[in-house]
Design brief:
about 220 residues, mainly alpha, two-stranded antiparallel ribbon, Cytochrome Bc1 Complex, Chain D, domain 2, about 40% helix
Amino acid sequence: MIRLFFYFLVVFFPFGLSSANDVVEVDLDLGEEINELCAGCHGEFAEGGKMGEYPRLAGLPVQYIVEQLKLFKDEHRQNMPMRPYANNRELPDADILSIATYISQIQLTTKMPEFDENTSAYEKLLIAKKVFNIPKVEGNIELGEKVYKKECRSCHGKKGLGKKNSNIPQMTGQYTEYMLKQMKSFASGEREHDDDADLFAEMSEEENQAIMAYLSIMDD
């Protein structure tokens, strides 16, 4: 059994997963087991599906995944498909860090690597399952770059990859449809954004689409 031990980090304390000087145990075998249930919607490798109806989770920061699961459990973030799973019976707090850590460690690539003649068809198939690339999106890329650099880059990074040791998720490599839906939720106040709540209400649909167009070429 693979087990990791994380000493208390302040990033987890706000979400009730530990208190000062506690030791939080992470069981990656348990995380893999829980992921088998998540895979029904989010895919075997947490790649998401149905054009973003189920978002990509693979590679997101541990703290971000922990935070969102707690918000679902506390019903501060509303999502009907998550209700049967994000509750104390199906997902006790003690298990959250294990599934979050397991999913965060899944790495997806944007294209198939070059193979040598000894690579079997089965090996190629397994590698192909972890290839994930966002199709190019229509929109004003120059405008998207301008708005992204002004409003998003300081938190989400130069390449939109977020920050691993924080609750800031990547934007590059996430489904366009999902991202646009979240922007609307932020704008309406249905979902809370950590910084500048009025930002999304002030942005036009053209600007939102332009940002998506810009992000869609960043993982090529």
